Amino acid sequence: MRGWVQRGLARLLIAMMTVAITAVAVVGGTISAGAANAVPVAPPLPFPVPPAIPEFDKAFYLPDRSVVAAKKPGELIAARRVHVAALSVIPVNVDAWQISYRSTNTRGAPIPAVATLLKPKGPAKPGPSKLVSWQSAEDSTAMYCAPSYALQQGSIPGQLTGSVDSSYEVLQITSLVGAGWSVVIPDHQGPESAFAAGPLAGRITLDGIRGARDFAPLGLKNDLRVGLMGYSGGAIATGWAAELHEAYAPELPIVGAAEGGVPADIRALVDLADRNAASGLIMAGIIGVSREYPELERFLRRHMNPLGTALLASKNPLCLTYQAALAPFVNIKGLVNLPGDPLDHPVPRKVLGKLRMGETTPDFPMFIYQSNPDWIAPVGPVNELVRTYCDDGASVRYVRDHFSEHITLAVEGFAPAIVWLRDRLDGKPAQSDCTTSDQGSMALDPATWRAFVNLVGNNLALAINQQLGNPPRVP
Predict the structure, then answer these.
(1) Per-residue DSSP letters for 29-47?
(2) Residue 61's closest CA among 74, 73, 78?
(3) Rounded distance, CA 395 to CA 433, Å?
(4) What is the Cα–Cα distance from 238 to 256, expressed in whole angstroms?
(5) Over the range 204-224, which residues count as b (16 or more CB within 10 Å of their CB) and which as e?
């Protein structure tokens, strides 16, 4: 049965990509982005032509290295209009584009990156422009799992590819657009799908904001205010963007970041996942990190036993669902032929140490929410991270939820997060110090119910193709 499904999916991929590539070759012409932006904007694919997966769309996703190297971080390389859809089928009535831009990896080398841009329909609201950078929990090791592909109308549904998080997150993203905010969604894992490589994800996220700021059709003004949001794998990118902001992109007017289910210490995630239900997912993170840190890749190739080598090879081309489903409850550390804890050996200890949050303190307010019984991203390192930030004078509101677990908190914590971020984007000052609150469930907070009702309203509007953002709904 499994072989039949794989063969069928392969035939579907080949057939759809053949049509898409043909259409890309046939569709000609571009639309000027205006004098403020020299990058031309290619028109969208005509309905019902499906988009090509990134692996077959190298001209956009992997432009020539010399072209990338000639750009500055965040500078645009290419742009095109796209059609966005919920679950690959239900059209989202917003203006949407994809941009290709230059970023920088952790070794200082130029790399290409891609982001999706969404703009509310209708005239802009009075006052400062507002942009939210939404970091998806891609948690995958293949480019076709990236949100830029999963969000497009006609893409292979996430229920088939396994990129369910990127597919379902559009239901949250529509709430941001419905509030009248522009949104940038970076493919923060980069061209090598380096899942869990936080410093890389932070750079790509910040450069995506630069690209969105400079993309004329998005219509952002000089009085721009920017917010960050991300949960779980998306919190890796959000947290690192927050920590890198002052050193890497201090000119960006970021006013706050909301993150939850925070993987603050990747080593702690590996320790917790060993022989646990999350071992399959965390092994994907090991693959992703090894792609950004070659010394870890060499270590694994040298010391993995045959079973470990086979498992990692089988996981190389998979999206989140299949990553999690393949090899749960595995003794991850037992796959390495070394005495003692393999994470204590110099190479993994050094690499994983680079991925621990808390090296620098964000220079803008943070809202952090965490499940106390989280079985994927343990609460202990998050408690330590908050203490580190607060000891350094940061503004942090920290909420621990004692009833929800990792997956349910992604839904329950969204409304409080959007309410908090709305206040920052509206110019309301955050608290100057730190607070920690313990709640039975964030879902029981009456202050967030209105935001949740509007979330449902936006998704009902989505189902009937109602225009989002005119008039904008306020959470």
Answers:
(1) --B---TT--S-EEPPPPT
(2) 78
(3) 5
(4) 11
(5) bbbbbbbbbbbbbbbebeeeb
Query: How far apart (Å, rounded) are the C-alpha atoms in residues 195 and 199?
Result: 11
pLDDT at 460 over 80: no
Is omega for the bond preceding 471 within 30 degrees of 0, making it cis?
yes
The residue type found at 287 is: I
What would the pLDDT profile of 216-241 be if each residue is shown by its tens digit?
999 999 999 999 999 999 999 999 99
Look up residue 10 and give its two tokens: 């392969």
Check: CB of residue 134 under 8 Å from CB of residue 100: no
- Please report the pLDDT score of residue 330 as a whole number: 97
**Per-residue pLDDT tens over the stretch 266-281:** 999 999 999 999 999 9
pLDDT value of residue 400: 98
Q: What angle do CA 150, 356, 411 make, to 5 degrees?
A: 40
How far is Cα 280 from Cα 299, in angstroms, rounded to an integer?
Answer: 20
191: pLDDT strictly greater than 50: yes
Which pLDDT value is given to residue 468? 64
DSSP state of 304: B
198-208 mean pLDDT: 99
Using DSSP bridges, classify how beta strands 95-104 and 396-401 pair: parallel, antiparallel or unpaired.
unpaired
Determine if the peptide bond prior to 472 is cis (ω within 30°): no
Q: What are the two backbone dihedrals, phi and then psi, of residue 173, each rounded to the nearest 5 degrees? A: -60, -35
pLDDT tens profile 64-102: 999 999 999 999 999 999 999 988 998 888 999 999 999
How far is Cα 136 from Cα 146, in angstroms, rounded to an integer? 9
Q: Which of 196, 202, 169 is nearest to 273 (CA)?
A: 196
269 contact partners, CB below 8 Å, separation of at least 6: 263, 278, 282, 285, 376, 377, 378
Helix (H, G, I), strand (E, B) or coil at 409: helix
Strand pairing category for 110-119 and 182-186: antiparallel
CA 325 to chain centre: 21
Nearby residues of 416 by Cβ (< 8 Å), 6 or more positions away:
367, 369, 399, 442, 445, 447, 448, 451
Q: Domains of the chain (ranges plus CATH)?
A: 34-265+356-463 (3.40.50.1820), 266-354 (1.10.260.130)
DSSP line for 335-383: GB-SSS-GGGSHHHHHHHHHT-S-SS--SS-EEEEEETT-SSS-HHHHH
Nearby residues of 451 by Cβ (< 8 Å), 6 or more positions away: 175, 415, 416, 418, 419, 475
Q: Supply φ then ψ for residue 219, to 5 degrees.
A: 70, 30
